Structure formats: C-alpha cells, structure tokens
C-alpha cells in the first residue's frame, strides 16, 4: 500500500465514536489526517471542495442518513472509498448500501475499533489497485492509438501510408461508380531523387520529401487525399474532380515545387516532379487497380518525355 499520509473524512455526529475510530486507525497507520463533518450539509460541502482518500460515514446523521449522503456523492461522480458505519439494529440496510456504491459496511460494536483498521486497509489497497488498473488501461489505449496511427500514417511525412491511401482510392472509386461522379488520381515522383541522395546526403533527401509533401498539402483541398506511395512517390486522390481540373492541380503542384529553392549545407538546388494523371470514368470502371495502373504507365511516359512535366492517361497513350 502507498506509504504517503492519508486523509480521511469522518462524517459522524458522535464525538466518542469518532475519537475511538481515530485512535484505532492511528495505531495501525501512523500519521493520518482526519477531517470532520458533523452534519450532512457540511459533509457534502467538504466533499465538493476537498480531496480525500476515504470517507467514513455514520448511518445516523442529522437531516440526511449516511445512505442518502452516499447516493448524493456517487451521483456527483466522487469516486473514492466510502465505508458506512451502522449498528446492529440497522443491519437490514447493508445490501442497499452496497448496491448504492459503498465499498464496505462496518457494524459498530465493542470490537469495531479492531475491525475498522482491517477494513480500511483492505479498501485502501483495493482502491489503489483500481487506480493502477485505470492507469494501465489508459496507457494501453494510448499505445493502441499510437499503433493505429503508425499503421495508417507515414512517419517521415505524416501523410497517409500506401496501404491506407490505396484503401481510400478503392472506396472513392466505388463511390464514383455508384453515383457516376468524376474522380482523378495523380501519381507523383520526385525526379532524380537517388541523385539528390547521392550528392546532398540522405538527410537532405528526407528534408526534400518532407518539404514536397508539405507543399502538395498546401495546394490541395481538405477533401483531397494524399499519401506516400513509395520512397519518393506520392499518390493523390481528387474526389469530384474531372480530368481537366486535375490537370490544373497537377500543373500548380509542379510549378510550386520547381520554383522553390531548396537549400542544404550552404548549397542551393531545385527539384522537379513527374506527374501521371488517371481519371474516372475513362479508367477505373473495372476496379481501382485500373486507375493505379494507368496512372503508373502515364507517370512513366512523363519520365520518358524528359521529366519535369505532367501527362494525362488517355490523352498521350
């Protein structure tokens, strides 16, 4: 059990009973802070404004019974151990107390000061275990969320990864077919990227990928989907976009990147792109793979044409 000093709220009207309970707990736990409330209104006010490790409450209290105080506390979502103290004549309310959220019930008799420390210690331990389980559960959820993010996103660019982006393309292609809506796809490759890595180093190559991805994101709409398709290739999905509009977007991306001055270790250089465009309904009537395949072939045509250009599937095949 945690060795730090505990703070216990006593909600009890009997001074004699309170003193006996305090003495028994101090003998068992050493330093412990006791806060007292002799009425229900005072008790509820203290619960609202002060943090406690446990509440010990007498069933017989002025205005409200201990059971009624318990129910109010639980409605306020104050989740801390609550032990109700009753006498022999009140044993009939034990079940109701436990159902209402009391952790335990102690019957006050001549030996209750021997039993009380055992009950208190047990509930301290149980509550600490609950808190530890909650913390572990939260860490597990955070880890699962992080793992999910890692499974969906590329760590270098924070774009969607290939698997997730292709899945979104399949969904968008199905939607385009279902509602007979236009859909365009851009497959974008950084020209001579291996040469950039060789001349400027891999760290610079990573920075180029990050900057290019950032510039593309700034050009695209929120509804557009962009993902890192492979090392230096990007897949862009443009829902509700006919081929003519997709060409304008591709040319804008190309111009933005090639006009940007990249810098590394005191050296300035330019970067260009090759872009292949595929579009529905000309492609993708069978499945999304047809869109990908035609975009890949058209990207290859852009490279054969000398790089640094945009080609559209169907127009140049």
Describe the structure.
By secondary structure, the protein is α/β, with parallel strands linked by helices. It folds into 2 domains: 6-143, 3-Layer(aba) Sandwich (Rossmann fold); 162-312, Reverse transcriptase/Diguanylate cyclase domain (Alpha-Beta Plaits). The chain has helices spanning 15-29, 40-49, 66-75, 94-99, 112-152, 162-179, 193-200, 202-219, 243-258, 288-304; strands at 6-11, 32-37, 54-58, 82-86, 104-107, 183-190, 225-228, 233-239, 262-264, 267-269, 273-280, 309-312. A 5-stranded parallel beta sheet has the order 2-1-3-4-5, with helices on both faces. A 5-stranded mixed beta sheet has the order 7-8-6-11-12, with helices on both faces. A two-stranded antiparallel sheet has the order 9-10. Helix 1 (15-29) crosses helix 5, helix 2 (40-49) runs parallel beside helix 3 and helix 7 (193-200) crosses helix 8. It is elongated. The chain starts with 5 loop residues before the first strand and ends in a 5-residue tail after the last strand. The model has no long low-confidence stretch (mean pLDDT 89).
The CATH class name of the largest domain reads Alpha Beta
Q: How large a portion of the residues is in β-strands, by DSSP E?
A: 15-25%
Largest sheet: 5 strands, parallel
The CATH topology of the largest domain: Alpha-Beta Plaits
* Topology pattern, helix = H, strand = E: EHEHEHEHEHHEHHEEHEEEHE
What's the total count of β strands? 12
**Architecture of the largest domain, according to CATH?**
2-Layer Sandwich
- What's the number of structural domains? 2
Shape: elongated
Helix count, DSSP H or I runs of 4 or more residues: 10
